[in-house]
Structure to design on (857 residues):
């Protein structure tokens, strides 16, 4: 695998970066210092967006739309992040509408990066430690690439549950249908179904006894045949007669309506032109095309004509003839509909005649109906355009036929009603019908029962398969993830030991909770108390460092060969000594990575810089500061300059204001650093902020209190004396002070050098790494473990507070 | 090999060794996994039911 490193990142119109920001890294790590709100996180967001297409913190707790909040508001259409790889300088860009073009050789790394788990923000550490066990499981699963597994585990479980429900539903259906069969046959025991059916059959004297319930279907058919008597056919014929009698008046009305419309059209046609004139339409249309309205000559005979009048006349004639054509078409349509109605009406009468055949009592109506059928046939034949127009079709004749029919119908209906009362099935037929209905009902339910039993067998088999599938998957998943945890756990313990050597925290356990689905339990031994939830007894700093260790161990496991590691303000709550250990952990265990580390904390920044020297990584880092940010220009990023170099430069240029201001900041930083390192007691401040005056005495006293070496103590005392004599210079220059003009550059130089002298005493003379205070060992020592000649100063036993 | 791949490899091996799992079910599950198509209940049920027609 080719290792991806970043040559440079070009960020344009993205989040808090309105213009192009070019981060030229040349494969080096980036250490970036900037106050809150100066665009540091926008840089991290840009890196995340480039690799993942997301900005994860926008999606947490009430998601915000990426397209609305990703691009910079001033210039959203130009939003783009471009990455140049190192050393081959492959260029690739991502916008909110396009994906980066990834070369084949880097595809594997980009796929890994797409999950975004090489970026750690402090909020994630808190989420990891303070999360519920299931949220923690999700977090870890995502990093180790197992987040899909929990989803699959859940759907397998749901499938199993669904099949259990299917089994239960089939069982319930079987129970229900069995009870229904028992109720129909009035029995208690389902085994009595067959004997009870045989008893019913036997009772009717039928020789149809069943050997098995499978024969029931055939038995039902036989009983059905027996119940089919002539009586039922006669009843059916009578019902048809009643139906036709009801329909005939409606048929007549429909025909009358169509004939009436046809008559109207006929009238309009006869009142207008001769139909033969319709052939003129085409000629008239053609003539309109050839007559030139600007000419006074006829195009055919060349005689003088009034073109306008001629065109007007032709148009009038055309309108009239087209109206005639329209009426002709409508008449044809009406006659077609009437013809269809005649046909249907005639069919009804033929059917009526056929049904009458069943009954002698209705014979007297038959001749009359047949005569009407014949007449209707004649009318149907005459229902065409020519016959209708030539008055061959007489509407009056048809109306007479309708009236005769309407007079006939009540007689047929009355006679049929009398017949209906006389046709009734026999008692035996009635009993056979009841038996048939019972057997039919039972047969249908038995068929249903058979279906349910078959479904039940399949569902039971599938349920068993689903149980095996779920159990195997779930067991393997738990075991394998626990293996990953065990592996990670070793690294976590090792890393935690680097951060907290010889402290009373150990036996970190990360484990799958066997009782809960998809959950991760976190335990450790704290002050001899075993298996404690870290939150119960650890400080916030300890919890943060534990979270950091877990993240780094997971990162190492899942992203072993991945070259980037991004840390966004991750050590906020840790004290100076532990931060130094974080530096050691990062630069010792992850020295092959290209880091992007951002912080707003100047002390942590300096510690990381010092650690770069200690671990010989100075050439691998680009250290930058964001000096200001504004809405129009975004972050103003500059290469970091060592403070002492800046001061020396200002002194050389005679710039006493700049030197004085830097010196004052230098002193403030140094005193805070000494107090932090030596755990000096500082009187509490109401605002939480400390000025130089608050820190000088605690820092000096603490050093003198701790150190045993008299010579070193004397150096410390002398340096602080020098500072005491000159520190007024810093104050005079750093505030609006009327006396500032009286301060000379030499006095400012003495002030700055006195600070630098104290600083030098706090560094190892051999490797220039800061001295650390190791309380348990009762020493102050060079913090660089690799230092070949480390300075080590004995300290007194700490006083009990 | 990632943890997910390891888990599925062992999972399919176990199912293969189990005589109670019809081959059609196993094949369907494998195909769905390879196609990244194993992430909802209906799909799992379809795999399990893939054995129905052959058994019955």
């Amino acid at each position: 695998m080719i290792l991806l490193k970043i040559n440079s990142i070009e960020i344009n119109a993205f989040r808090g970066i309105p213009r192009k920001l070019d981060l030229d890294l040349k494969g080096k790590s980036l250490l970036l210092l900037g106050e809150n709100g100066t665009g540091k996180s926008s840089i991290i967001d840009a890196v995340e967006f480039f690799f993942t297409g997301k900005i994860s913190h926008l999606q947490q707790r009430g998601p915000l739309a990426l397209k609305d909040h990703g691009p910079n508001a001033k210039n959203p259409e130009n939003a783009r992040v471009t990455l140049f790889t190192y050393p081959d300088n492959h260029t690739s860009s991502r916008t909110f509408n396009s994906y980066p073009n990834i070369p084949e050789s880097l595809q594997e790394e980009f796929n890994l990066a797409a999950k975004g788990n090489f970026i750690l923000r402090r909020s994630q550490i808190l989420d990891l430690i303070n999360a519920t066990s299931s949220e923690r499981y999700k977090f870890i699963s995502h990093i180790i690439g197992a987040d899909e597994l929990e989803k699959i585990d859940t759907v397998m479980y749901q499938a199993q549950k669904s099949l259990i429900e299917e089994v239960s539903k089939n069982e319930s259906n079987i129970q229900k249908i069995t009870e229904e069969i028992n109720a129909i046959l009035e029995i208690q025991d389902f085994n009595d179904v067959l004997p009870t059916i045989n008893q019913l059959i036997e009772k009717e004297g039928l020789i149809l006894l069943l050997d098995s319930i499978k024969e029931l279907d055939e038995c039902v058919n036989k009983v059905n045949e027996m119940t089919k008597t002539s009586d039922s056919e006669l009843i059916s014929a009578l019902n048809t007669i009643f139906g036709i009698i009801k329909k005939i008046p409606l048929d007549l009305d429909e025909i009358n309506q169509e004939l009436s419309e046809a008559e109207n059209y006929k009238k309009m046609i006869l009142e207008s032109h001769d139909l033969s004139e319709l052939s003129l339409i085409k000629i008239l249309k053609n003539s309109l095309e050839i007559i030139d309205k600007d000419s006074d000559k006829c195009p055919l005979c060349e005689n003088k004509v009034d073109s306008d009048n001629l065109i007007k006349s032709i148009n009038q004639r055309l309108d009239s003839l087209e109206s005639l054509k329209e009426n002709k078409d409508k008449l044809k349509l009406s006659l077609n509909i009437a013809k269809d109605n005649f046909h249907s009406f005639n069919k009804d009468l033929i059917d009526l005649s056929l049904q009458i055949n069943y009954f002698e009592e209705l014979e007297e109506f038959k001749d009359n109906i047949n005569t009407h059928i014949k007449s209707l046939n004649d009318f149907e034949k005459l229902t065409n355009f020519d016959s209708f127009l030539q008055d061959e079709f007489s509407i009056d004749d048809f109306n007479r036929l309708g009236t005769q029919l309407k007079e006939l119908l009540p007689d047929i209906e009355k006679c049929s009603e009398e017949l209906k009362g006389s046709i009734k099935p026999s008692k035996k037929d009635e009993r056979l019908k009841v038996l048939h209905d019972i057997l039919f009902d039972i047969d249908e339910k038995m068929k249903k029962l058979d279906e349910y039993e078959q479904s039940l067998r399949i569902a039971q088999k599938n349920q068993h398969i689903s149980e095996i599938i779920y159990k195997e998957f779930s067991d393997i998943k738990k075991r394998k993830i626990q293996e990953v945890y065990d592996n990670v756990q070793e690294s976590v313990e090792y890393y935690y030991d680097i951060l907290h050597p010889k402290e009373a925290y150990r036996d970190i356990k990360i484990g799958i909770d066997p009782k809960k689905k998809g959950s991760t339990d976190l335990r450790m031994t704290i002050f001899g108390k075993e298996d404690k939830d870290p939150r119960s007894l650890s400080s916030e700093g300890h919890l943060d460092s534990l979270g950091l260790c877990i993240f780094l161990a997971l990162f190492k496991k899942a992203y072993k060969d991945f070259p980037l590691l991004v840390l966004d303000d991750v050590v906020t709550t840790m004290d100076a000594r532990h931060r130094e250990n974080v530096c050691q952990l990062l630069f010792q265990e992850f020295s092959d990575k290209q880091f992007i580390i951002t912080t707003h904390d100047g002390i942590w920044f300096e510690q990381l810089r010092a650690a770069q020297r200690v671990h010989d990584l100075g050439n691998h880092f680009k250290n930058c500061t964001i000096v200001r940010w504004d809405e129009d220009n975004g972050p103003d990023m500059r290469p970091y300059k060592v403070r002492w170099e800046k001061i020396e430069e200002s002194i050389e240029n005679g710039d006493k204001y700049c030197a004085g201001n830097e010196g004052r900041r230098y002193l403030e930083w140094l005193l805070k650093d000494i107090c932090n390192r030596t755990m000096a007691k500082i009187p509490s401040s109401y605002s939480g902020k400390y000025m130089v005056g608050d820190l000088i005495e605690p820092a000096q006293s603490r050093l003198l209190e701790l150190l045993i070496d008299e010579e070193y103590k004397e150096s410390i005392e002398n340096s602080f004396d020098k500072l005491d004599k000159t520190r007024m210079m810093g104050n005079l220059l750093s505030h609006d002070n009327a006396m500032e003009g009286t301060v000379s550059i030499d006095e400012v130089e003495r002030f700055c050098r006195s600070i630098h002298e104290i600083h030098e005493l706090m560094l190892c003379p051999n490797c220039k790494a800061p001295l650390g205070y190791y309380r348990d060992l009762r020493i102050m020592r060079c913090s660089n473990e690799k230092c070949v000649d480390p300075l080590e100063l004995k300290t007194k036993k700490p006083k009990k507070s | 090999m990632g943890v997910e791949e390891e888990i599925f490899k062992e999972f399919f091996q176990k199912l293969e060794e189990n005589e109670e799992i019809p081959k059609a079910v196993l094949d369907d599950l494998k195909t769905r996994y390879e196609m990244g198509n194993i992430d909802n209940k209906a799909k799992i049920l379809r795999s399990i039911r893939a054995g129905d027609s052959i058994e019955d």
Summary: Chain B touches chain A through 28 residues (CB under 8 Å).
